[in-house]
Specification:
The complex is a heterodimer. Chain A is α+β, with helices and mostly antiparallel strands. Chain A contains 10 helices and 20 strands. In chain A, the strands form 3 sheets. Chain A has an 11-stranded mixed beta sheet with strand order 1-2-3-4-6-5-16-17-18-20-19. A 7-stranded mixed beta sheet of chain A has the order 7-8-9-10-11-13-12, sandwiched between helices. In chain A, α4 packs across α5. About 5% of the residues of chain A have low confidence. Chain B contains 14 helices and 12 strands. In chain B, α5 crosses α10. The chains are: A alpha+beta, B alpha/beta.
């Protein structure tokens, strides 16, 4: 076992290389608990993370390749502590990485739903892949922050407005509370109700923010964004505080936001929580998703009584070079309609399902769970003969977790993913949106039919 | 486990997005289902090279491809020296001006240094600084032009280079002699001032400052010029830097030799021989194109920016990338301006009237299609 600490990119990290042996389980859990407390979690939060690390580690010891150690990285994310396991997995064990994988009853082990055990104790967790057989399973626990009362916006702000690209923490917190006072919970990040958390997220780079100020320095509006993968940013807002200046404020913020991201590595900007103040003509409408939100409405307890159609907007930050995408022919009518509407040049290539004889027995799905939003996102990682059954099992397991919204992303750069559509359809998923360039190529977002309770 | 490849890469490289050039015309035409493509995106001179340069290109013998070119563009530097009345050693020729930008930054900047330029100008100054690990201080344009006072105010002891694009791409604004002199006095020799004159041949105004003359009084001035714009040799990639001998000597130490090809060197030299008529014809073409476009933009109620240079920028009522895609479907290729930090603007290169008429017809169609889109 080896360990090191670093202060990489101003964020503290503790890195452990652990043999794939459950004898080291107490070491992993103790390191997680200690690091979480050093990184600012309270005792309860530290224990939650330690429990998740314990479960993950035990799980990986059973199923990851044994030839190389498991790397555990514990990171201070400012407002959260993250535990990330990086490991190499042999094909034989991949099935077990499914969140909904049941352990084989015949083996005599209990029939627990795999990694979902660990997921229950954390705020977010997920499985990602960074190489042919290199995987990451990660979990995050948020620091506790006090909730604050939303504030009413001051009236009669005075133009001309100006942008403040680097506002002080106090100003960020004040602006977040003003936005919380004017916009419903579903249209703003949860952290607006815990403004110290939002300010810390800005300070640590989880969010970037632009403020509009009036002539005497009062906040007139806010827009914030974060990275989503390597090539996209997702934004929330714009939030404007004086209706009389709404148009000017929204335009100033939108233009400033685009100028800030224009020469970054981001290729596209997508809306995450677009407000009605989003100026016309700056983004392209991709469609909408029907979202139910978390049963308890997340951290402010104001859940939506009715499902809400949330529109999705997009903007390319470069000139589109065209692309070829793979899809099952059943998807062609939907894709042709969307690509034509959006004027995207795409060669549609027919992806037929692989013959079962040529597939491995077990498929693999990556699951990301966001409890605060009641949202689960599935991404196929490996095809297998059991794909449809595996997907059904995931849907059932996720529903049991009180997640009301389930999305599935297909990367249309991959023929085998494009070919999965009939199985998705059989499991109750329908195509809703195309996200240009959101993956290796375009991402097709499918949504599971909402549950009627 | 060994570190991932990404962990071996410096943070400033990881954070940098490689520039993706547009695909070859035949590929684009197939993708967008068109049988022609008018290139109005790169400010190329649609008249083609001056006659003497054409002759050199047409006479180029294929066997010369087997021989290395002059490693330091000896003959071309001699022609440049005669043209501008300077020592050939004061010229350094590169594979387009982008290469000499990199050479200048490598020559003068070290860890902790910064460069200063505008936020909305040719992106390569900023890009090269950032992927080399140096801070690029970006000063907002003032009334579409570089802001000399704000640039001076941004200087500190670690400022090594100030880049002034004169005329500016993409706004076409330029500093007159008085503004440039005042700015250079303000710099006071504390840093290198690069005056990028890529579009200088398009300016026909006696108030326009000549960098070649300024460098004789301000030893820290370096001038960039290119054969890619007015001289229509973009495909051969020839640009150059001129400055005081001592300054150029330092830049030469970081510069790759043999980077300018064997056809480009004599073609560029020939282009200087008979450029008067060529420049006049090009200026006339640009004036006629603007004479068609600008009233049309007025009629459409669109804001535009048109100053020096063979291009016009116009504000669009929808995302510039959407306008781009819609125009591509009609065989017209323009430059989107989000990357220049002008979201919802496009830049159109000004070329011969029939092509400008095609552009306007397509543009009107596209505006009709996208005009009703609520978002």
């Amino acid at each position: 076992m080896s360990a090191s600490t670093s202060n990489h990119s101003a964020q503290h990290q503790l890195v452990l290389e652990l043999p794939s042996d459950t004898a080291f389980l107490p070491s992993a859990a103790a390191a997680a608990e200690n690091a979480a407390q050093v990184f600012g979690l309270d005792r309860n939060g530290a224990l939650r993370l330690a429990l998740a690390v314990e479960e993950f580690f035990a799980y990986l010891c059973r199923h990851a390749g044994r030839e190389e150690p498991i790397r555990l990285t514990l990171s201070d994310g400012g407002t959260l502590t993250r535990a990330d396991f990086r490991f190499r997995a042999g094909e034989v064990s991949l099935r077990a990485l499914n969140f909904a994988a049941s352990v084989d009853m015949d083996s005599g082990e209990d029939a627990e739903l795999g990694l979902l055990v660990a997921a229950r104790t954390t705020d977010r967790c997920g499985l990602t892949r960074s190489g042919p057989d290199v995987f990451h399973v990660s979990a995050e626990v948020d620091r506790a922050y006090p909730e604050a009362e939303p504030q009413s916006a001051p009236q009669h702000l005075t133009a001309p407005l100006r942008l403040e690209p680097a506002p002080a923490s106090g100003v960020v917190q004040h602006a977040a509370l003003l936005a919380a006072g004017r916009y419903p919970a579903r249209l703003r990040p949860h952290s607006f109700s815990r403004p110290a958390r939002f300010a810390d997220m800005v300070a640590t780079g989880q969010y970037q923010v632009l403020l509009a100020l009036d002539t005497v320095g009062r906040p007139a509006g806010l827009i914030c964004w974060r990275n989503s993968g390597r090539r996209a940013v997702v934004f929330s807002g714009p939030y404007v505080f004086d209706p009389a200046l709404a148009q000017d404020t929204a335009r100033l913020l939108t233009e400033g936001f685009l100028a800030r991201v224009a020469r970054t590595e981001a290729l596209c900007a997508f809306s995450e929580r677009p407000t009605e103040d989003l100026p016309h003509g700056w983004f392209e409408a991709l469609g909408s998703l029907t979202l139910h939100g978390a049963p308890d409405g997340g951290d402010d307890g104001k859940g939506e009584a009715q499902p809400v159609d949330q529109p999705a907007f997009f903007r390319h930050l470069r000139e589109d070079a065209g692309a070829a995408v793979w899809a099952h022919p059943d998807l062609f009518p939907f894709l042709r309609r969307e690509y034509d509407r959006l004027a995207f040049s795409r060669d549609l290539l027919a992806a037929e399902p692989t013959a079962p004889a040529r597939l491995p027995a077990h498929s693999l799905l990556a699951t990301t769970l966001d409890r605060l939003r009641g949202l689960a996102v599935l991404r196929p990682m490996l095809d297998g003969r059991d794909f449809e059954a595996n997907l059904k099992a995931h849907v059932e397991a996720i529903r049991e977790q009180d997640m009301r919204d389930i999305l599935l992303h297909l990367d249309l750069a991959e023929p085998w993913q494009g070919a999965l559509f009939p199985a998705l359809s059989a499991c109750g998923f329908a195509p809703r949106l195309v996200l240009p360039h959101a993956g290796d190529s375009d991402i097709l977002v499918c949504q599971h039919a909402p549950v009627h309770s | 486990m060994p570190p991932s490849i990404a962990e071996l890469v410096p943070e400033y490289i990881r954070a940098f997005e490689a520039y993706t050039p547009s695909r070859p015309d035949p590929v684009l035409m197939r993708q967008y289902g068109v049988d022609h493509l008018h290139r109005l995106n790169n400010n190329e001179n649609a008249l083609g090279p001056p006659p003497a340069a054409r002759k050199v290109i047409e006479a180029f013998e294929s066997m010369r491809s087997a021989i290395y070119p002059s490693g330091d563009s000896y003959a071309l530097r001699t022609v440049l020296a005669e043209r501008f009345g300077k020592d050939p050693e004061r010229f350094l020729v590169g594979n387009g001006s982008c290469e000499v930008i990199a050479s200048v930054i490598k020559a003068f900047c070290e860890k902790g240094d910064n460069i200063i330029t505008a936020d909305k100008t040719f992106a390569v100054y900023e890009w090269v600084a950032e992927f080399s690990g140096f801070e690029a201080r970006l000063i907002p344009l003032n009334n579409w032009g570089f802001d000399p006072d704000a640039m001076l105010a941004a200087m500190d002891s670690r400022t090594k280079i100030l880049f002034v694009c004169n005329p500016n791409n993409p706004t076409g604004t330029w500093w007159d002699r008085d503004t440039m002199e005042r700015f250079l006095r303000g710099v006071g020799g504390r840093a290198i001032v690069v005056i990028d004159e890529a579009y200088c041949e398009y300016v026909d105004d006696e108030r326009f400052p000549d960098g070649m003359e300024l460098m004789e009084r301000h030893k820290n001035v370096v001038v960039f010029r290119t054969f890619s714009k007015m001289y229509a040799l973009a495909g051969l990639r020839v640009g150059y830097v001129c400055g005081q001998k001592e300054v150029v000597d330092y830049i030469r130490r970081t510069h790759i030799v043999y980077s300018v090809n064997a056809m480009g060197q004599p073609a560029a030299a020939a282009a200087l021989m008979d450029d008067a008529e060529h420049i006049a014809a090009t200026r006339l073409m640009v004036a006629e194109a603007k004479g068609l476009l600008l009233p049309a933009f007025d009629e459409l109620g669109l804001n535009y920016v048109s100053n020096a240079g063979n291009f016009v920028m116009v504000e669009t009522p929808a995302s510039d990338s959407l306008i781009y895609r819609q125009l591509m479907r009609r065989g017209i290729m323009v430059r989107t301006m989000t990357g220049f930090r002008f979201p919802n603007w496009i830049r159109i290169s000004t070329v011969q009237l029939p092509v400008m008429q095609d552009f306007l017809a397509a543009f009107r169609e596209v505006l009709a299609v996208v005009g009703g889109d609520p978002a």
